Amino acid sequence: MIIRKLRLKRGWSQEQLAQVTGLNVRTIQRLERGQNPSLETKKSLAAVFEVDISTFELPTENSIQGESKMTESDNSLSEQSKPIETIQADEKEAIEYAKGVKEFLTHLFFFLVFIPVIVFKKGLYEPTFNWLILGWAIGLVIHGLNAFEKLNFFKVDWEKKIAERKLGRKL
């Protein structure tokens, strides 16, 4: 989730992040879904986002509760190290909201692409395909009602703006 937050903060797509880090787009997708990155991947992400490598550690019970354990060596290095980015509960909720809107728009896109193909191939007089179209349209409407209230998807960083609108502040 933290990788998605950092990526949205910069207005980057998954493809852009993959290109900048030298990682595969599929790897970025897996990391955003919660897979633990390798040490090399953490180093690459930390360098690109200019944060401490420990930013990408999976949360432990102590870090979730806000407790942290620092050793003497951690204290001496803390002044020199890069900031550790965290994600708050409301930010996580807003990012999930933006992800839901993105999924709805993908669903809408496929509907708008494939319905004309179905109509062209089979025509509107085939009852089986009329039920398919109607069922898909109803599912699309329900998906849209669950996904968002308002959306301005013509901007490049619309996903970031949706998350910020949900939060009521900047990421």
What does this structure look like?
The protein is an all-alpha fold and 171 residues long. The chain folds into two domains: 2-78, lambda repressor-like DNA-binding domains (434 Repressor (Amino-terminal Domain), Orthogonal Bundle); 89-167. It is built from nine helices and no strands. The protein has helices at residues 2-10, 14-21, 25-32, 39-49, 61-64, 72-78, 89-122, 127-147, 158-167. Helix 7 (89-122) runs antiparallel to helix 8 and helix 7 crosses helix 9. The two termini are 13 Å apart. Mean pLDDT is 76; it is low at 60-79 and 151-156.
Sum this structure up briefly:
The protein is mainly α.
Largest sheet geometry: none
Secondary-structure element series:
HHHHHHHHH
Distance N terminus to C terminus? Answer: 13 Å
- The total strand number stands at 0
Number of helices: 9
The number of domains: 2
Using only CA atoms, what is the Rg?
A: 21 Å
Low-confidence stretches: 60-79, 151-156
Query: Which secondary-structure class do the elements indicate?
Result: mainly alpha
Arithmetic mean of pLDDT? 76
Question: Beta-sheet strand percentage?
Answer: under 5%
User: What is the 3D form?
Assistant: elongated
What helical percentage do the residues reach?
A: 55-70%
